[in-house]
Amino acid sequence: MRFNLDFEEKKADQVRSSTPKNEVEWVPLKDHPVFASATGPNHDSNSGPGPRNLLAWDRASRLYFWDSHQLCLQRIPIRLGEPEPTSVLAASPSKVLRPDVEPGFVVHKISINRNGSALLLVGSDALCVMYLYGRASSKDDSVICRTVCVGSQVYSNGSSVIRVLQVLWHPYSETHLGILSSDSVFRLFDLSSNIIQPEQEYYLQPAEPGRHRNATSICPVDFSFGGDHLWDRFSVFILFSDGSIYTLCPVVPFGSVYKWESVVEIYTDAHTFGLKSANPATVSNSNLAICWLEATFPNLTHQVSEEANLSTIRARPYALFDASLSLQGPLGKVCQEVDEDLAIRGAEFEGRAVSFLYIIISKDSVLVTAWSGGQLQLDALADEIQPVWNVGSPPRLRVDFRDHILGLAMICESGPGNRSTVKLDQPLDNAVWLGQPPPLLRLAIVDLALPTKAESGSSITMFVDPLMPERIYSLHDGGIDSVVLHFLPFTSQISGKNEAGRTPSVHPVLSTCQGETSSPSPLCGFVSLSDSFGYSWIVGVTILRECFVLEMKTWNLLLPLHVDMENKPDQSEELKETEIPDIISKELLSGPKMVLMPQTSNLRSVAADSIEGRSTLHQYFKLFHENYVEYAHKVYFELKYHGPHLKRLIDDQHARLGDAQDKIFKVEEKQPNLEDRIVRAIQQHSFLEERLKCLRNLPGAHKKPLSRAEREFKSELDQFRGVELDALCSSISALTARLRRHTKSLKGNASDQQKLIAGRKKYIQDTQVSHLKSSLEKLSLVNGENSEKVKLVESALKGRESSR
Fold it and tell me: Name one GO molecular function term (predicted).
């Protein structure tokens, strides 16, 4: 019996193990057999409108890659910084994870939750979740994993026109998914309770009545959850096609876990700056926020009063019964202009907004918007996010038999007071808890200078470096670029850095462009890795299944600019030194040294044959020999020594002279042809001038240039053709899908109502017949009694008449 137990334990351990221990071989990640096994591009390399990312990292020691050929998931254990600090090793062979039900769609993106237990497989119109545990396959050494479809009633492959725009795991829950779809609905799904029906639904209505600007303002594109900062952790940021950004706050998954200190901080802030204000609107908004906090976190009031020492707190299902969330926005920018529309729209960008990224960097919340024209718009929140409700618009709740909330749905409208326009001279303290969305402070506009493409524009995907949040990776058709932020308004002010106005630095990491025009991106996977020692890498996979690993430097990117002007060398002196060729020494070129003659008396009075004269002559001869004769010997030696070198220089000059003469000879040979071509060009020019004169005489040739209004109207038409037409088509498709679902539900409800009405009619007829029968019986009894009474009266009358 003990043997059997040991055998079962050994078998279970083999199923749970990632790779066979006796066959593991650690190889460089770029040389892993998974990436070297394919012989051609993926069969779905050109499918799908947006970029694909088939790589995922669990932020520990496992890398996941979706194999589009075998329709399976490859789990690759990796080692960072071994054996060298900059190396990345991978275990071979990898573990194969197969879904128990193959997805009926092309996978464009995979994403893993924070504890590494489930992985998303996302397509254009459907998605499913693959749990990363299962049973061993009987056919091969793979693991069969349980796979379920999410929201099959809403997102279905082929039969629905509702497209999945973005899917993200919630940062404070391991089982909640946020999905933004083309029908302008944001949904939260809880995988632990119900994978078919959403837990929360928010129907987005950004266009105010009478203020509709264009079709792109009602088409969502992307969204992002907020970070770990005050009310940002309860916020959802939504980007629309025209570049406008809206927020939903508060949005909390049922059962999500938050830090105790964070919830207490915003609870205290609402009491301090909200309830004590003299403005009734501020008091009302803060009171709603306090009520929501106390109901969502029921132990908050007692534990704050008792000063409990807790680490986390769990949110319970709750919603205000008489109010829905307000769609705050569009977020405007801090400016000096008075025009609201200019403050909301900001600078003109090419194309439409395609992707969005939220980053929390110390004390700053940075919002990055990517445009199809190749620009990145970087903004920072100038104030704090606060919760806002539309009172009088109750949500729709789904409850169980105990009246516990299971789900909710609400219509989120943008009110007239949600347009945030702030001037530079306006203090932000006056807008605390007034229900106004925070304005945006423009940090920079980065033009990636992408190659030209069709009218659809470029698709850009953005990632954050896990080690340094100031660095943003942008993945596009031209390759990968790195954008590093050097100035952050609140963080730089706190740290004391004087780098105001310093523009972000852009570094090309990888170029995949072959010319001026670009083809679809050859990358099908991208992930950023980092370890605890400060090393960072990026890993990418091409459509040809080629893997590359690039080490990214981080230590010197945020250093301040400092130029040493004191020890700067004199450029004029360097030029003077380099101009003199080092053929003969400078000492010889400067000539013999100046000789200081000895101080003697007048030489005319000294005889040459005298002792004094001879001594003077000897002294002069000695000085002449020491200076001029030795200088002549040095010159002779230098000339003799540099003779071969000078000969080589002269030969080189002669060779260059010969080459120049050959080139001149070739030019002289080509000169007649050039003269003939010039003559033909002059004749062609004269012919074109004559044709131009004839064309100018044609009717309609003297058209006036377009006026400013006509040019603006033409640009609006081009904008409508290139951007808004797609938005209208997607809106029509979403409305068609919603109408189909509504008609199906109406047909089902109508049949049920007809059955109910028929049953009710039958029941009513039976009751009416019974009532009629009982009333007839009563009437017959009353008639019998009345007839007897009449007979008694008649007999009494007859008796009286007979007695008379």
Answer: structural constituent of nuclear pore
Determine the residue type at 672.
Answer: P
Q: How far is CA 64 from the centre of its chain?
A: 21
304: its two tokens: 């704050």
Compute CA 667 distance to the chain's CA centroid, rounded to the nearest angstrom: 57
Separation CA 188–CA 179 (nearest Å): 6
pLDDT at res. 110: 94
Q: Is 432 left (phi over 0), alpha (psi -120 to 50) or beta?
A: beta
Triad 203, 127, 372: Cα angle to 5°: 70
- DSSP letter, residue 21: G
Give, as one character, the DSSP assignment of residue 53. Answer: B
d(CA 262, CA 268): 10
- Provide the pLDDT for residue 555: 60
Across 51-175, the runs of DSSP E, i.e. the strands, are 55-57, 62-67, 72-80, 88-92, 95-99, 109-112, 118-122, 127-136, 143-149, 164-169
Number of C-beta neighbours around residue 440 at 10 A: 27
Cβ-contact 183, 734 below 8 angstroms: yes
Of the candidates 355, 549, 333, 366, the one whose C-alpha atom is nearest the C-alpha of residue 470 is 366
Cα separation of the two ends of the chain: 122
Q: Taking Cα atoms as reference points, which of 360, 507, 485, 473 lies closest to residue 55? A: 473
Long-range contacts of 753-761 (CB under 8 A, 24+ apart): none
Please write the tens of the pLDDT for every residue from 137-192. Answer: 777 888 999 999 998 888 865 556 788 899 999 999 999 999 999 888 999 999 99
DSSP 595: P
Q: Which of 53, 18, 82 is nearest to 538 (CA)?
A: 53
Q: How many residues does the chain have?
A: 804
CB 505 within 8 A of CB 443: no
Say if residue 576 is exposed, middle or buried (CB neighbours under 10 Å; 0-12, 13-18, 19+): exposed
| Whole-number Å distance between alpha carbons of 97 and 15 | 11
ω before 508 within 30° of 0 (cis)? no
DSSP codes, 13-76 = HHHH-SS-GGG-EEEEGGG-HHHHS--S--TTTT-SSS--B-EEE-SSSEEEEEETTTTEEEEE
Query: Largest Cα–Cα distance of the chain, in whole Å?
Result: 221
Neighbours of 354 (CB within 10 A): 24
Segments making up each domain of the chain, as ranges: 166-254+318-447
DSSP calls for 234-275: G-EEEEETTS-EEEE-----TT-EEEHHHHHHHHHHHIIIII
376's CB contacts (< 8 A; 6+ apart) are 368, 369, 370, 445, 446, 447, 448, 460, 462, 472, 474, 483
Q: CA 356, CA 370: separation in Å to the nearest integer?
A: 6
CA gap 196, 149 in Å, rounded: 8
Q: Which two tokens stand for residue 223?
A: 């969204």
DSSP state of 40: S
Which residues have CB under 8 Å from 782's CB, separation 6+?
Answer: none
Strands 164-169 and 176-181: antiparallel
Predicted pLDDT at 781: 80
CA geometry: angle 769, 773, 777, nearest 5 deg: 170
Q: How many Cα atoms within 13 Å fall on the side-chain side of residue 212?
A: 9
Whole-angstrom Cα distance, residue 541 to residue 547?
A: 5
CA 253, 254, 255, 261 dihedral sign is positive
Q: Rounded CA gap, 87 and 432, in Å?
A: 50
DSSP state letter for 722: I
pLDDT score for 157: 52
Listed as ranges, residues in the chain with pLDDT below 50 are: 1-20, 43, 45-46, 338, 342-347, 561-581
Please state at what angle helix 260-270 crosses helix 280-296, rounded to 10 degrees. Answer: 150
| Cα(356)–Cα(523) distance, integer angstroms | 20
DSSP 625: I
